[in-house]
TrEMBL record:
<dbReference type="InterPro" id="IPR045865">
    <property type="entry name" value="ACT-like_dom_sf"/>
</dbReference>
<dbReference type="Pfam" id="PF13710">
    <property type="entry name" value="ACT_5"/>
</dbReference>
<protein>
    <recommendedName>
        <fullName>Acetolactate synthase</fullName>
    </recommendedName>
</protein>
Length: 85
């Protein structure tokens, strides 16, 4: 399985994290690690997400960028790693 690190910048909304996780699941990716931090003096958040799948990460990235309130999605890194089920 390939692991991918994504950086997502979005406007903070109570439902934002749920929307991101739903898209990740529906696109067939597994969340391996996640970190979220709010920006200082703003209503923006940064979500760092590590996901795993055999599928191309571009599919996930393009779907995440279509979400309301998401301003940017960057693919940071990808590594090949064995993940035991």
């Amino acid at each position: 399985m390939m692991q991918h690190q994504l950086s997502i910048q979005a406007r903070f909304r109570p439902e934002m994290l749920e929307r991101v996780l739903r898209v990740v699941r529906h696109r067939g990716f597994q969340v391996c690690a996640m970190n979220m931090a709010a920006g200082l003096n703003s209503d923006n958040i940064n979500i760092e997400l590590t996901v795993a799948s055999q599928r191309p990460v571009d599919l996930l990235s393009s779907q995440l960028s279509k979400l309301m309130d998401v301003s940017r999605v960057d693919i940071q890194q990808q590594t090949s790693q064995q993940i035991r089920a």
